[in-house]
Amino acid sequence: MQGYVTVRGKKLRKGYTTGSCAAAASKAAVSMLIIGEKLKSIAIDTPAGVKLELEIVDIEFGQGYVKCAVVKDGGDDPDLTHGLKIFSQAFLTEQPGIKVSAGEGIGKVTLPGLKVAVGEPAINPIPMKMIRKEVGEVLPAGRGVEIILSVPGGDKIAAKTFNPKLGIVGGISILGTTGIVNPMSEEAWKESLALELRVMAAKGLRRAVYIFGNYGEDFAVKKLGLKQEYLIKVSNFMGFMLDKAVEYGFEEILIVGHLGKLIKVAAGIFQTHSRFADARMEILAAYAALEGAEYSIVSSVYDCKTTEAALNIIKKNGLEGIFSRIVANVSKRCSDYTWQKIKFGAVLFDSDNELLAADKGAQDILQHIRSKRNEP
Fold first, then answer.
1. Distance (Å, rounded) from C-alpha 364 to C-alpha 374?
2. pLDDT tens-digit profile of 253-294?
3. Are strands 97-102 and 144-150 parallel, antiparallel or unpaired?
């Protein structure tokens, strides 16, 4: 990977995700199975729009199969999976189509609430889509192939991650929403976010939309119809970015987020990374009790491992009032944090990109932005 980012004058090399590795290894294995010759490298496309040419290693031709690997490269980003070999073994089948399964070192989902169904290997939807796309480009029409992914040593690495807490057992997850790893230290990351906000202020903007990441961006653009110029990804640094908003003179901020992030802000947690604070279930259980839920329901919410699992219980038991509490408390907490110098609104959505709640402040700010009365 030859891409770089520059942070505070320091050049940091980008990397590529486990999803990109799996897609490349799978494409290479199928290609070699078809042509009967070894390949030194393979090219794939990534959702980020970057084309990668990745080296193929540990090639093995067997009876009716080809197996090979791509070495995970996290660039200059601290990455537990850096250096792991992501293997793909391909077999031609009588049944047309592409079947993908997982072997050694790749986890299995055991609890509800994730993007992958219980019992399935922990291969996220975007990497799975990448694998199918790349393999489909080299698999002859009408032919079928079975692909088995594996990551030797993945079980030991996974024990150092949050996978066990999420109910993913036996190995790592195959991840990546863009296919590319962008390295950045926490302080450098915060500095870059502050710079982006300062640039917005310099353009005369006095309203901004805070999102936490790619999912929030997708919802804000596609569901709320907001322009990119108002959006800024704050990652886990909500408190830091609220301080900067005051410093740069912003007047209104709309916060758009998924349940897992907004529930923390609603409780006054302004650094939302789980290693700083993870009281999501305690907060949701308390809100369920405030909505009048019976003890058994409150206990069920508390015992959930993911907010998506808790969300299912909330909806099943008619506790949607929790959503209104969350957005109202997000706005209040942020207003108090900034000494009432900024007006706030909050929008809550779920993993299916469906709106769960929006408070009055959010409706006002959205109206201002959409009517192009955003700035004085």
1. 11
2. 999 999 999 999 999 999 998 878 889 999 999 999 999 999
3. parallel
Same domain, 242 and 171: no
Domain count, the chain: 2
Per-residue pLDDT at 281: 96
Indicate whether 177 and 198 sit together in one domain.
Answer: no
pTM above 0.85, yes or no: no
Residues whose CB is less than 8 angstroms from the CB of residue 296 and which lie 6 or more positions away in sequence, other chains included: none
Residue 375 domain-assigned (yes or no): no
Domain boundary among 126, 147, 181: 181
**Under a CB-based contact definition with an 8 Å cutoff, are residues 291 and 319 in contact?**
yes
Tell me the residue range of the domain where 114 lies.
4-181
DSSP for 145-187 reads EEEEEE-TTHHHHHTTSSTGGGTEESSB-B--SSSEE----HH
| CB-based contact 110:127 (threshold 8 Å) | no
Collapsing DSSP states into helix, strand and coil, what is residue 98? strand
Q: What CATH number is given to the structural domain containing 129?
A: 3.30.2110.10
If you search the block for the tokens 């019992």, which residue do you land on? 119
Q: 141: how many CB neighbours lie within 10 A of its CB?
A: 6
- Site of tokens 């850096």: 82
Greatest distance between any 2 Cα atoms in the chain: 72
